[in-house]
Design goal:
It is built from one helix and 17 strands. The chain has a seven-stranded mixed beta sheet with strand order 4-6-8-10-12-14-15, with no helix packed on it.
């Protein structure tokens, strides 16, 4: 199986109009810029950089199911995939996907997606989605979504869970926890 180098973050298209994203290996054992999706590309001479229109047309047919980045990185995946970014990074994923970011990161997931961030991060999920944030974090979800934020009290770590549409929680509104472990509108103040 031969490989070809493209720039990380480029979309490439093959002879069967399959779109793949050029990613950086999660283990860093593969050199950056190897074009890969679910598997490494075969016959790389049959691939070229895709146009923006070709990527838009492909929509849910994009073959990048897992994209990872290191600190300060940005990972973006179409529907039903997983995007993972390190500390201070941004992870975005379409419907039914998982977006995970580290400390002070941002994770955004679409319809029925899951967004998870570390401490002091921001998690946003679409309708029927789940947004999970660590200590000092902010969470927001769409209609029928669930938000969960971690807090400390005198006895240990607690997770506060809210269901959008119940107890005054509104869709597409960011929430943080106050000193009593109650949800309040607005982003958490992070120092």
């Amino acid at each position: 199986m031969s490989k070809i180098h493209f720039k990380a973050g480029q979309w490439v298209i093959g002879e069967k109009n399959q779109i793949h994203l050029v990613v950086r290996s999660a283990t860093e054992t593969t050199p950056p810029g190897i074009a890969a999706g679910v598997q490494d590309l075969e016959n790389p001479e049959h691939y070229r950089v895709a146009t923006v229109e070709e990527v838009k047309v492909a929509g849910g047919s994009v073959y990048a199911t897992l994209v990872t980045t290191g600190k300060y990185g940005s990972a973006r995946v179409a529907a039903d995939g997983t995007a993972i970014a390190g500390d201070f990074g941004t992870a975005k994923v379409g419907e039914l996907g998982k977006a995970i970011a580290g400390y002070k990161g941002v994770a955004i997931a679409g319809f029925q997606g899951t967004a998870m961030v570390g401490d002091c991060g921001t998690a946003e999920a679409g309708d029927i989605g789940t947004a999970v944030a660590g200590l000092g974090g902010t969470a927001m979800a769409g209609d029928q979504g669930v938000i969960m934020i971690t807090r400390l009290d005198g006895t240990g770590t607690r997770r506060c869970i809210g269901i959008i549409g119940q107890n005054g929680l509104k869709p597409r509104v960011p929430y943080h926890l106050n000193g009593y472990g109650e949800f309040e509108e607005g982003s958490a103040v992070v120092e």
